[in-house]
Amino acid sequence: MALAASVTSLADEVNCPICQGTLREPVTIDCGHNFCHCCLTRYLEIPGPDPEEPPSCPLCKAPFRPGSFRPNWQLASVVENIKRLELASRLGSEEEDVCQEHGEKIYFFCEDDEMQLCVVCREAPEHRAHTVRFLEDAAGPYREQIQKCLECLRREREEIQGIQSRENQRTQVLLTQVATKKQKVISEFAHLSQFLEEQRNILLAQLESLDRDILKQQDEFDVLVTREICRFSTLIAELEEKNERPARELLTHIRSTLIKCETRRCRKTEAISPELGQRIRDVSQQALPLQREMKIFLEKFCFELDYEPAHISLDPQTSHPKLLLSEDHQQARFSYKWQNSPGNPQRFDQATCVLAHDGFTGGRHTWVVSVDLAHGGSCTLGVVSKDIRRKGELRLRPEEGVWAVRLTWGFISALSSFPTRLALEEQPRQVRVSIDYEVGWVIFVNAVTREPIYTFTASFTQKVYPFFGLWGRGSSFSLSS
Predict the structure, then answer these.
(1) CATH number at residue 392
(2) What CATH number is attached to the domain comprising 67?
(3) pLDDT, tens digit, 9 for 90 and up, residues 51-62
(4) Distance (Å, rounded) from C-alpha 448 to C-alpha 274?
(5) Confidence band, pLDDT 50/70/90 cuts, at residue 299
(6) How many CB atoms are located within 10 Å of the residue 39 CB?
């Protein structure tokens, strides 16, 4: 069997590219490829698109001269040897059907010893008590087993191919997400760099202004002090001169001289005003907004880097007739007046709910819902499975394919198997809903304070859609990413 396979492989190597058969009188052209002499002759008889151009090789399209091909005697010898090997292989395969011990043709198969037997072997004492059948009869059950194995193997191969296809798609999705996040990193840091540059310029401008004001006040102080020093020097000289005079002259206008001494205090003892000093201390306070902005940026950036913002819109085909949707399908408001909505299988007929137009079959996605319950209504937010019940009563719990929370006036509840009232520091007005399809998380967070609200753990097997419900006059919500 190994010899036959090797001979077949060799025979494939000496085939003519034109007739696909074994080379006959092989000839070689300029590019080195080999063809049958007769095949190449017929090929040259076919006129080309441009009679002036030389013919091209049928295999590699390289031009060659019609009179340049030459016989390849060495390859012709190889072809002859391969033909002899093929003949020997066929004779050997015929000999395999003959018993090596008795020279008789093999007809039987011993199932006990798993041996192929001729007529003489069949009558041997060691096989008389065994189960012996004709070759085709014995091969039948084994063919059935092989067929079953083939079916199982093909089925498993299809499953593996399906897994490969799914994982390849998932890989492409992840690569797309990475590319998107890469662009987001570049964009966000460009905005941050611009913001930091603006803040740096503002702070430097304030510091430069302080520097100028300090120097200005220092100059003013120096001028004033110089004048005061001159005034004091004049008083000192006048008093020294007065003190040297005789008593009669000393006492002349002595009061006015002493009064000048009483007003000798310096008019200004500080170079820098208290107001300017306060401005210098306030410079550090200018960095507080920058610190807050950086904190918000990092929290938002890290969250959005982990979850892809979902630009969702409401599907009017699913909306209950009591819900009024905005023209851009980004807002909904409850109304007791029924809308003239055509009936269809997708529309909710009892639960005042609406789904997003597009759903998710993988990945991490997030969106924000702003809720207004001015008149004491309620709003339900979350995700639902594709086959959620649209007609009749809708049970809002995970067992029915609903993972949601409900906001009412004054409190919020998680709609688990048994609704659970949640204790939060603040009633949220903006709720961020996030889904991690592969992990199976549905996360609710206060979009303003970042306070966690509730997290569902599920195992998603089909497409899921963002889900919204409203009840109560004037209750409404709007979407953002």
Answers:
(1) 2.60.120.920
(2) 3.30.40.10
(3) 777 888 888 888
(4) 40
(5) low
(6) 21
